Amino acid sequence: MTDTAIRFANYWLEQALAEEGDSTLPAPPLEGDASCDIAIVGGGYTGLWTAIELKRRRPGLDVRLIEKHICGWGASSRNAGYLLNMWAKYPTMRRLFGVERALAVGHAADLALEEVIAFCAENGIDAEIARRGWLWGATLPQTFDEWRPIVDALAPYQVSPLREISAEEIADRWGLTGLHGGAIDEKAGHLQPGKLVRGLRRVAIERGVTVHENTPMTGLHRGSPPSLSTPGGTLRARRVVLGMYAWAAQLPELRRSLAVTGYANAVTAPMPERLEKSGFADGPAFNDTRNMINSLRPTAGRRVLFGKPGRALAWAGNTGEAFEHDTGWLLDAERRRRELGHIMPDLEAAYAWSGPIDRTKDGLPFFGRLPGARDILYATGFSGDGVGPCRMAGKAMAAMALDEDGDWADFGLVRPPMQDLPPEPVRWIGVRMVRSALARTDAAIHGGRKPGPVTRGLTGLMSAGIASRGDE
Ligand SMILES: Cc1cc2nc3c(=O)[nH]c(=O)nc-3n(C[C@H](O)[C@H](O)[C@H](O)COP(=O)(O)OP(=O)(O)OC[C@H]3O[C@@H](n4cnc5c(N)ncnc54)[C@H](O)[C@@H]3O)c2cc1C
């Protein structure tokens, strides 16, 4: 198989839908005007976890969820399935929120990871969860201990998410070569994201949530109570929860807090013998230490998934078609050979797909009430790490929608939109410049050169890589 025979389709979602068969045809769209207690926009992890949590807290609540396509169409089925906590972002969180609140977010994200696993087990969701760890592997000797500031910062609080791992152990256990050691988080893992999101949809419906698919929100009325326009009718609700991910950047209140960039994934054809022989069949979720991160992980079907940031960049929050076919960089064979060939040679895509990333400047999500419209809640900005954290977002959204804020009132990620990105065209030009500076830095340091001062200055402007470099 060569890349020319590739299918441009989301492997995870296709697989999940094929297993469901006809049993879950799209739920009927909204037809006519309706009202409910809580309306949710978006049928991904955020919207579905919110719906499930609302029903757990108040089983009699009338909850309706609208989704413009089918549940799982968005990032929740397109991701790489890395099930991670948020400790790698602790230094950034400490700077922004202070020690106590940063630790609270870290522990909540740990709990979310455990809850995703437990929820799947309790509800018959076979999301192929493999708790085989998350490996952060150094591509250069000088990036070997990038993880150490995180470990040092957490040591006084008896939190030790990462263990040092040698190049030899990485090669022996999983056949990943050419690395300079790194760190592993044994509690993390990977899963089949499409099966997770479709499983959440099933459970939400079983618990009495009314789902309307093929129902785009075409207008958001910020009155009290708020309402949503759709092609089939208007939905009124006491509260509205926006689980719209990158598409939330279309709302003026959130636009200047999000830079929407592309990300692509591909899976190879099955290669059981090779993966079993090397040990990577039982391998972890791997990221390298580049700014423009590479991902590698095995799938349950003995394929390898590889992923890479794409080229697409939204203008004024407009997350359109460009994000559906943003696989260019990922499928550049020469680039792949250069960046991954020494770690795992001869990777060729059988399926490739892409999607938008709802990136914030600090690399952290934000949850809250829309400025000037306290009955409308949002959770977005996951910045490429949402599989575990969306569970946390769903709990926060449900509590806040019921005015039961409790501990969430002082939670670090509950914050107004940061509005810290410039308006267009400065943002588009600026993000593009930062992104190419990040790529140039990768090329320079891997070629044994020092990036120039302008490049260095630009890379400090936005979070990149795993731990939001430039933040400390
Ligand atoms: C290629 C890729 C790889 C990733 N890899 C990882 C990873 O390995 N690990 C990790 O933790 N995170 C990863 N992420 C991020 C993670 O997938 C997301 O953070 C997470 O899925 C967000 O869930 P969500 O429900 O907020 O968004 P989504 O799943 O995108 O759901 C939002 C939904 O809202 C719907 N919607 C939008 N606008 C409207 C409207 N006007 N009306 C009605 N519906 C609307 C969309 O159709 C969509 O289905 C990745 C993301 C991408 C794109």
The radius of gyration computed from the alpha-carbon positions, rounded to a whole number of angstroms, is: 21 Å
Name of the level-1 CATH class: Alpha Beta
Low-confidence stretches: none
Structural class: alpha/beta
DSSP, total strands: 18
- Kindly state the mean pLDDT as a whole number? 94
Helical stretch tally: 14
CATH topology: FAD/NAD(P)-binding domain
Which geometry do the CA atoms define?
globular
Please tell me about this protein's structure.
With 472 residues, the protein is α/β, with parallel strands linked by helices. It has one domain (3-357, 364-410): FAD/NAD(P)-binding domain (3-Layer(bba) Sandwich). It contains 14 helices and 18 strands. It has helices spanning 11-20, 45-57, 75-78, 90-97, 99-122, 148-154, 167-174, 193-206, 252-255, 272-278, 333-340, 389-401, 426-446, 453-459; strands at residues 34-41, 63-66, 82-83, 134-137, 163-165, 182-185, 189-190, 210-212, 219-221, 227-230, 233-242, 259-267, 285-288, 295-298, 304-313, 351-359, 366-370, 373-380. Strands 1, 2, 8, 9, 10, 11, 17 and 18 form an eight-stranded mixed β-sheet that branches. The protein has an eight-stranded mixed β-sheet with strand order 5-6-4-13-14-15-12-16. A two-stranded antiparallel ribbon has the order 3-7. β10 and β11 form a beta hairpin. α1 packs across α8, α2 (45-57) packs parallel to α8 and α2 packs across α12. The longest helix is centred in the first third of the chain and has 24 residues, at 99-122. The chain is globular. The mean pLDDT is 94. The structure holds flavin-adenine dinucleotide (FAD). Flavin-adenine dinucleotide is lined by residues 41-47, 66-69, 73-76, 78-82, 84, 216-217, 243-245, 247, 263, 265, 355-357, 382, 384-387, 390.
